[in-house]
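1st attempt posting a full record on here, be nice pls
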Amino acid sequence: MPAQADSTRAAAGAAQSADPAPRSNVEPRLAYDDLRQWLEQARKLGEVKDVSGLSWQEDIGMVAGVAMHDDAAPCFVFEQVPGTIKGSRVLVNFFGGKRKNMTLGFPTELSKLELSEGFRTSFLGTTPRIAPRYVSDGPIFENVMSGKEVDVTAFPAPKWHAGDGGRVWASTSRPASTAGRCATSTRRGNSRCRSPWSAAAIP
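the predicted structure (as tokens):
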């Protein structure tokens, strides 16, 4: 009887020490190093649609608003936006379709549940830190503006919604916890003239 009790306690202890949610057996492998390579991979999936000549005033925002409600919709690359810098482009709806899996580095045939599990086990735990590498040049220096040349309105930043106060350059949302309550903080960067910049945090 004592031996049986000891074996029962040992089995219970092993069960408690085991990970209740085992790791996914699929490890992520990113197939790109930058946005240009990401676009190449998305094109291989047949999930990129190039559109030319639409305006930043309302056209781009309208297309983006429709696309975001359809998970099977492609991503859109808007080019030749009237009144903007030659060669500048806008990418919208990048995280949908099979692109979700590719973006996170997982096989495109994984289901949403399998993708969620792979993301949980691979990205939500402790991840190794990558030391920075300092360089003196790179693609970021291909186009440089300084002094009076600076004109942020020349970039194709859209006005996403009719009620927006201006063209929106950056918009992020993140959950926050305050006194036991959950809230969402939205940050937006707007520009209404050549060089000034304004940012708003909206709880």
